[in-house]
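Researcher: We plan to redesign the surface later, but first we want a full-length starting point. Tokens attached.
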């Protein structure tokens, strides 16, 4: 029985643990605290900071673990890749590739202006480095290397940049803030699976955000209802080109895209499965289980899961319940449609909602048909 270590214990890591157990593997998890459902779901849990590479390596060697991986975490993926390279364990991308995608300034530079999906940007550590009075507003201001939609602001003038700059900078480990062109159009999520530099699976979903919370997700709708065939063809070209430019030749990739005047622009990209349980809705909508495919490919070089896709996508939506952090969870307050196919609560009634993005945090989700 092969042994797999998953870094992190949040609900997205629980998805990975449950999939691995279904496939017959022995599962291990680690985190700074036993504060997520993956800890109880796994066969073994250890308190280790997922950024403490030396401790993780020692744990891997002690337990003779075969693979280290994570899902839905930009912090964990570079660590998993670095350790995998060091110990000659299976991995899809190098640590350098993971670092590039995890740092929006480096990602923009690596894509280069030749990438049709790239956008103009500025990277600064202080406001003295850019003439904010001459920027073309509105713009998006955010930390260059955070995750979970933390520290993102839509700024309409120089005064709003001044007001929110330090808050955006607070969430950057490097102290870098990226100020980039605001793409005025609808948002999309794009889940991709790459094999030897080619896009073998691509699913486009409409990404509906909360209007009062810039960038924070409310629901995903599949298949997309806002893209024309022409713009979808361009999207495929952009996504495959971007993956190859940064070095994602194999495995899953996730993109946040915005479309303006039929043209797709890359907002974020990362060499991992998304953090919104999209594998769950896409499995039901397309027949392809991206979570299973990822581990079959990584562990056994088996791509047969891709054969389950016949080109059809059943209309479905994945809807998040969200709540302000540092408030109390009450499951009875959440409306669950009678036609839901699946639902999951992140908290029990009476639990305190932990601040993740610090504004309006996910507390659970459900999936339902839209036919």
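Model: Full-length starting sequence:
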């Amino acid at each position: 029985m092969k042994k797999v270590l998953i870094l992190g214990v949040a609900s997205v890591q629980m998805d990975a643990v449950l999939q691995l157990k279904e496939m017959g593997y022995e599962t291990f998890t680690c985190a700074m605290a036993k504060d997520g459902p993956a800890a109880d779901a796994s066969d073994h849990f250890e308190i280790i900071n997922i950024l403490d590479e030396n401790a993780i390596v020692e744990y891997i060697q002690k337990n003779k673990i075969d693979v280290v991986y994570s899902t839905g975490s930009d912090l964990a993926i570079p660590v998993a890749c670095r350790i995998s390279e060091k110990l000659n364990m299976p991995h899809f991308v190098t640590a350098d590739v993971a670092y590039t995608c995890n740092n929006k300034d480096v990602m923009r530079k690596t894509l280069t202006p030749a990438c049709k999906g790239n956008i103009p940007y500025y990277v600064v550590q202080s406001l003295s480095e850019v003439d904010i009075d001459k920027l073309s507003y509105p713009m998006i201001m955010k930390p260059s290397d955070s995750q979970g939609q933390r520290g993102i602001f839509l700024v309409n003038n120089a005064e709003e940049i001044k007001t929110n700059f330090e808050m955006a900078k607070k969430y950057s480990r490097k102290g870098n803030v990226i100020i980039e062109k605001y793409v005025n159009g609808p948002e999309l999520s794009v889940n991709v699976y790459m094999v030897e530099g080619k896009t073998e699976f691509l699913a486009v979903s409409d990404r509906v955000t909360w209007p009062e919370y810039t960038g924070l997700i409310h629901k995903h709708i599949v298949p997309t209802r806002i893209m024309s065939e022409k713009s979808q063809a361009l999207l495929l070209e952009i996504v495959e080109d971007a993956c190859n430019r940064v070095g994602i030749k194999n495995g899953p990739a996730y993109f946040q895209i915005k479309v303006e005047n039929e043209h797709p622009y890359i907002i974020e990209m990362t060499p991992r499965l998304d953090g919104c349980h999209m594998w769950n809705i896409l499995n039901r909508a397309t027949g392809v289980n991206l979570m299973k495919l990822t581990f079959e490919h990584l562990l056994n070089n088996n791509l047969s899961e891709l054969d389950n896709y016949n080109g059809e996508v059943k209309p479905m939506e994945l809807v998040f319940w969200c709540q302000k952090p540092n408030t109390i969870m009450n499951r009875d307050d959440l409306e669950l449609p009678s036609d839901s196919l699946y639902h999951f609560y992140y908290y029990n009634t009476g639990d305190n909602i932990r601040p993740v993005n610090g504004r309006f945090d996910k507390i659970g989700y459900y999936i339902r048909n839209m036919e």
